[in-house]
Write a structure and sequence with these properties.
Length: 353
């Protein structure tokens, strides 16, 4: 598994090298073609001029001027043709390089995911009893991220928190991607319903329990939403997925429809928490006083009929207060979760249980 990443990267670099060699050869051919075309066009033009002058006097001086002019024409034509060919092949080169760059990025992303998965598939350090476990490292990283944000949970900072050398920590966690996998799975563990708390039998009630646990965990650790590339699932992530599938196991629908149901609920919860963190709790969010003044200026320009009508009806300050209260209403999460589940039930012809 460790060899997969370098091999993929080397393949992409070789593709880029081959593309450069092809472009270099193509440019040489372009120069030859440009000179050949320019000479041919210049000869044709000289022949036409000679035909026009045929029989006229002018002697050697006129011929000399014609020869000099033809030479300049050849040079100009060569330059023009060369410029066209060069532009054409530069564009080809840029397209080839862009394709190679995308390939490198794709291979590196695959490599990172494979590397992060390795943290779950390889054995923990053997020999004498390890000083740290994966759980110890993940718990320490979560504490740091809770206090200082995700970016603060670097390998150096984590090593200092654990009282270990940075290189010692790399003995347990090889990369930052592996660390993110451990951290993500630690938070996912908080979504898992304990074995001594069985899920309700009604599928809607079971999904509500899971949704509330997910929301609580995301609100305790809002920085987890900053991990934009989902790390490979660890044991807790797989357990959470297993429990969501258990919640809908009794439904007489296809597997694809079950996946639709559980992912719709997960996406609702994650989206709700992300919107709340980024907007409702932000001093520069859409409910901030500065935004209200900005909207007031927009209303004055026209083109915002519904907001203008709302402001005319109750006043912009009162409307803003009502919008803020509705957005921050703690019951909004459950109301819309119920609407989501009711809509799913109606669309699939399911009952509430």
């Amino acid at each position: 598994m460790d060899d997969a990443h370098p091999t993929a990267r080397q393949r992409a670099k070789q593709e880029a090298k081959s593309a450069k060699q092809e472009i270099k050869a193509a440019v040489k051919d372009a120069v030859k073609d440009a000179v050949k075309d320019a000479k041919r066009e210049a000869a044709e033009e000289a022949a036409r001029q000679a035909a026009v002058r045929g029989g006229s006097r002018g002697g050697g001086r006129g011929a000399a001027r014609s020869s000099s002019g033809s030479l300049r024409d050849v040079v100009d034509l060569v330059a023009e043709k060369l410029d066209e060919k060069m532009n054409e092949h530069v564009a080809q080169h840029e397209r080839a390089m862009a394709k190679s760059t995308r390939a490198v990025e794709r291979y590196e992303l695959i490599g990172r995911h494979l590397g992060a998965l390795d943290v779950w598939t390889r054995l923990e350090p053997g020999g004498r009893r390890p000083r740290f476990t994966r759980e110890d490292i993940a718990a320490a990283a979560v504490l740091i991220a809770d206090a200082e944000g995700l970016e603060a949970a670097s390998m150096r900072r984590l090593a200092a928190h654990l009282g270990a050398g940075t290189m010692t920590l790399y003995h347990y966690v090889h990369t930052k991607d592996e660390l993110l996998s451990l951290v993500f799975d630690a938070v996912m563990g908080e979504l898992v319903v304990p074995d001594d708390e069985p899920l309700p039998e009604r599928w809607t009630d079971a999904l509500r329990v899971l949704a509330h646990r997910a929301r609580a965990a995301l609100e305790r650790h809002p920085w987890i939403l900053d991990i934009t590339d989902d790390p490979p699932m660890g044991p807790n992530g797989v357990r959470h997925f297993d429990q969501t599938m258990l919640a809908v196991s009794g439904l007489n629908v296809s597997l694809a429809e079950k996946i639709d149901i559980v992912t719709a609920v997960d996406e609702y919860v994650f989206g709700y928490c992300l919107q709340a963190r980024n907007n409702l709790e932000s001093p520069t969010g859409p409910l901030a006083p500065a935004m209200k003044r900005y909207v007031e200026g927009l209303i004055a320009t026209g083109g915002y009929s519904q907001i203008e009508a709302l402001a005319a009806d109750v006043g912009l300050d009162a409307a803003w207060a009502q919008i803020g209260a509705a957005m921050r209403d703690p019951g909004r999460f459950d109301r819309n979760l119920t609407r989501l589940l009711d809509g799913i039930a109606a669309s699939l012809g399911l009952g509430g249980g």
